[in-house]
Every structure is written in structure tokens, then in C-alpha cells.
Amino acid sequence: MTSPDTTPKDTMPTDTTPTDTMPADAFDKLQSEDMANEVRILWSEIGIMAFLALLVAIYFIVE
Amino acid sequence: MIDTLITVCLGFVLLGMVPTLATFAQFLLVGLHGRWNHYPKCADHTPRVAFILPAWNEADVLGASIDSLMGIDYPAGAWRLYIVDDASTDNTPEVMRGKMAQYPGSVFHLRREKGGQGKAHTLNHGIHEILADDWAEAIMIMDADVLFERTTLRRMARHFADPEVGGVTAYVKEGSEPASLLSRFIAFEYVTAQAAARRAQNVAGGIPCMAGGAQLHSRENLLAIGGRIDTSTLAEDTYTTIKTQICGRRALFDPNAIVWAEEPDSLTALWKQRLRWGRGNLQITMAFRDLWFRPSRSAHFGNVAFGVLWFSIALMPVFMILGSVGLVGLFYLWPPWAPLAFSVLWSVTFLSYLFQTLYSFLIDPQAARRAWFEGLAFPGLLSVGVMILAVLRLTPFTATAGWPAPGQWSWGEIGVLVVLSWSALSTLAAWGVYRVDRAGAPKWLRNILLVLVGYGPLLCAISLGAIIGQLRSSDLKWDKTVKSGKARLPT
Q1: What does B428-448 look like in DSSP terms, one character per residue?
Q2: CB B22 within 8 A of CB B308
């Protein structure tokens, strides 16, 4: 199982079966936090674009 | 003949705008991640995960990264840590034994007797062991200095609820404490290159690189791409990412899954690391030469937009030099057009700079609080000055209303030439800053020069070094970036 340039594993972990999943509401909270962050970033982009459009408009008016 | 040369110069000026326009277009896609993301297909999915931590003389950082893993929020018994000791000659084995005693039953120790061949070789040793039995359902490739936040693995693994997904990467943030000017520059760079760019790539349907510091693969995907990491290039993470998508599975970036890493604190170490990345990417360009601009029917990966973006970054210094040559050529061949071309090129750059900088601050406010100055100074204060000259249509270095006539070799004309060729000169100046740092100049001097010349031009200079290195086929050697254990998880 090991290639020639190796020594075997020092320890073997205890094999356990995963049992505990995150409570459903905790996972939902994680999901909704992340989705809310993505929506915040979308609105941030719209805000920045509006701000820059205003700056460009002022630039051309002053010019 | 003159007309032809003028047309060529105008073409060069347009080519000089390609990297700016490509990255600007990519940034425009970032917000769409709020609508088009993979989260609706996620579920609380917790496959059995084997972490592979390659360690070659990592005694200074290994303990902290193992400690961070022990704090993750993931089902007990559903993850294991395999440390592949790559024949370390420092006290890595002692640190590892201490941690194995501290966390009994969670850590595998694999040791290679012949080390230092590179990360890919070390990973392959671990992958070979892990795939030899059927316990692992997913494999996390990580770096020895990477610190995981509590929910990072949970956030990454949830995407595997969708069987189309083959790999997921996290947002690697620079976490050195105390932070130096250089580490804050890198922190801001990672907002643009990861938090922003990879969101856009998720939207576009294909990402070129899952970060090697936190790259989670499903077992099926790892087997499909050959059951091993390619060792023929210096960019094994990019190779694996592209291969994943060519084999028909999705590669995703989860921007809310965060890990922290320590990045180089000297320009010499940064140059060495990025030169390796740059040359690796050029090797990838050749290795997948059939891919570019030839999209498959099933994926956007490899389409024209993707190809333009890839080459605009890989060949950025070439575009910058062509832009400068075009402006200087116009100044001599068709003087009335030079100010207009200069103004358009640098005004577009200024608009793109403003948009990307302000937006990056909002994408990652935590990084912005830490690195706002470095964000503003990213292109270099001198380049910002050139942008302002272009936007305000000031006559550079001349007191007269018009530009000096070409061919008189006055100071005004020299000033104009410097400004017109600044995108190429800044690359040269950045190389000079690197040489000053390498010569052992004090940090304060290096920092002043870096702020003036800019971190962006430094990256451009490294890319140029990578291109020259590849063209000359100079020695290709995997070279590890030394880490000292400065990264910290935020409290």
C-alpha cells in the first residue's frame, strides 16, 4: 500500500460513523446569512455604478 | 507607410486597454452572484472528508493549523487529517507527534523518506494512501499554514449535495499579525483576485483556479481526473481545477467559506512565489492549448470571454508595453492624436480603478478596514497621478497650453514621453523596487518606493519575469515559500 519512499502510518484513527448533523435551523441560518451577503454585494455594485455614473455626468457637464 | 504605422500604433493603444477592460467587465459580473449562485442547490451534506496537509519543514506553522482544524464545526468522526511529512529536516516530526498525542485518533502521519520534490509529489503520496481504502468521500487539499474558520468545511461540503459539483474552493485571506504594508497589499489583492474575480467566474460558469490552500474534491472527481495531482507544471492547483471542469464536473468558489494564510513579507519571497505561479500558468496555457477559445457544448469553460480574461492576465505586461509603444508612436507620427489617445486610455483606467477599488471595499469590509490605504495605492501613487493628468487633461510637465512638439528634446518633451510610456516604465520601476529590496535596503525605503510605484506594477513585472523565464526555458524548480507562523484566526 505504501510507495517505496515511505514509512507506514504511525497511527490509525478510530473509525467512527458520523452521526451529528447541524440542526436544520442552524444550517438554514448559515444559508440565509450567505445568501443575504451575496444580495448585499449586488446592491453595493448597483450603488457604486450609480455613484460613478453621477461623477461621469458631472465631469462632462463641467467640461 | 506612415498611415500603416499610425494604424499599428492605434491598434497597440487599443491592445493596451485590453487588461483594463477585461478585468472591468469581470467586475461587472460580481454582483450577479447575488442572483446566480449555487446556494439553492446546497443541503446540509457532510461527506467523510480526508484533509491532506503536506509538510516540508513546517514546524513553525503546523501546530496552529492543526489546532484550527480541531475547532471546526463538522460531525465527529466524519473527517480525518493526514499529515504528509515530506522528509522534513526541522522539528516538524516532533510538532506532529505532540499534536497526535494532544488529539489522539484524529491524525494520520505519513512520511516520505525522499522529500523536497514539490507539493504535488507530497500530495500524491497522501492521495495514494487515502484512495487505497474507501473511507474518504471527499479530499481536502490544504497548505500547512492555512487556518480554517469554524464553519468553513461545512460551507464547502454543502455544495456536494449537488452531484454535478466536483470541487469547491474557499476564500483564502491574508491573516498575518502584525500586518506589514506588503501583507496588507496582498490582503487587498486577494479581495480583487478571489472574493471579486471568483464570484464573477462562478457566474460565468467556470473558474480557472481553485486555491491550493483549500481545495475540496469529491472522491469521484479526484478519481475521474486520474487519482493524482499532475506534477508536470508548477501550478498544480490550476491544472487540477481545469481538469475537473474538462472531465465534466463543476468547480466552484464559496466566498463565504474562509481560511486564513500567511503570505510573504519580503519582495524577494513574493517574487519567488509569484514567479512560480506565473510560470506555472504559462505551462498550463501550453498544456491546455486546445482549450482556449474553444468552448465545449456542456460548459462555458474555455469560451471566448474566458480566453480573453486568461490571456489578458497571463500576458498583461505585453499589453502594457504595447499600449506605451502605441502612445509614444502616435506622439511622433501623428501628434494631434497622442493627447486624445492618452486621455482615453488612462481615463478608462481611472474609471476602472475607482470602480474596482470602491467595490472591493464593499465586497469585503473587514479587509477594507485593514487595507484601505493599500487599496487606494494599489496601482501606485505615481500611476494615480498619471490617471489624474489624463482625466483633467492637464499638460504634463509643460507650462504651455499645448503639448510640446516632438523631436525637440526639451525637458517638456521628455516629461511627455515619461508619462506616455508610464504603463511600461512602471513595470520597470517595480522591478527596480524588487532589486532594491533584494539588495537589503531598509524596509521604510522599500515601502515608500512600493507605495509610489505600486503593487499592481510589481505583479506585472513578475509576470514579465515569468514570460522571459519561460521563453528562455530557464531552470524550473519547485521552491517552497517559507512561512513563520504569523497568521491568526480573527477573534
Answers
A1: HHHHHHHHHHHTT--HHHHHH
A2: yes
Tell me if A42 and B32 make a contact (CB, 8 A cut-off): yes
Say if the Cβ atoms of A39 and B46 lie within 8 Å: no
The total of other beta-carbon atoms located within 10 Å of residue B138's CB is 26
In chain B the domains, ranked by start, together with CATH numbers, are 2-22+311-471 (no CATH), 36-294 (3.90.550.10)
Cβ–Cβ under 8 Å, residues B282 and B314: yes
Q: What is the pLDDT of residues B94-140, one digit of tens each?
A: 888 888 888 877 888 888 877 777 888 899 999 999 999 999 999 99
Cα atoms found within 13 Å of the Cα of residue B291, Cβ hemisphere only: 23
* Grid cell locating B175: 491573516
Cβ contact B75–A20 (<8 Å): yes
Q: Does A25 touch chain B (CB under 8 A)?
A: no
Kindly determine whether residue B34 and residue A41, on different chains, have CB atoms separated by under 8 Å: yes
CA of A25 vs chain B CAs: smallest distance (Å)? 11
List the single range of B159-168, B237-246, B383-392, B398-407 with lowest mean pLDDT: B398-407
Q: Do B154 and A59 touch (CB under 8 A)?
A: no
Q: How far apart are CA A46 and CA B103, in angstroms?
A: 48
Angstrom distance (rounded) from CA B77 to CA B285? 41
pLDDT given for residue B298 in this prediction: 57
Q: Residues 65..94 of B with a Cβ closer than 8 Å to A: which?
A: 73, 75-78, 80
Cβ of B105 within 8 Å of Cβ of A2? The answer is: no
Put simply, the answer to whether A14 touches B77 (Cβ < 8 Å) is yes
pTM exceeding 0.95 = no
Check: CB of residue B138 under 8 Å from CB of residue B49.
Answer: yes
Q: What residues in A contact B42, CB-CB < 8 Å? A: 31
Q: Can you state the angle between helices B119-131 and B236-246, rounded to 10 degrees?
A: 50
Interface check for A62 against chain B (CB to CB < 8 A): the answer is: no
User: What is the distance in angstroms between the Cα of A41 and the nearest Cα belonging to chain B?
Assistant: 6
How much of chain A exceeds pLDDT 70, in percent?
Answer: 65
- Lowest mean pLDDT segment, chosen from B47-51, B113-117, B191-195: B113-117
Q: Answer whether residue A26 shows pLDDT above 90.
A: no
pLDDT digits (tens, 9 = 90+) for B164-189: 999 999 999 998 888 899 999 999 99
Contact B132 A1 (CB under 8 A): yes
- CB burial of residue B417 (10 Å; 0-12, 13-18, 19+): buried
Q: What is the ipTM of this complex?
A: 0.89
Which cell goes with B172? 483564502
Which of B147, B160, B159, B270 is CA-nearest to residue B213? Answer: B147
Predicted confidence at residue B252, as pLDDT, reads 97
| B391 touches A: beta carbon within 8 Å | yes
Rounded to a whole number of angstroms, the distance from the CA of B311 to the nearest CA of chain A is 26
In chain A, residues with a C-beta closer than 8 Å to the C-beta of B105 are 11, 13-14
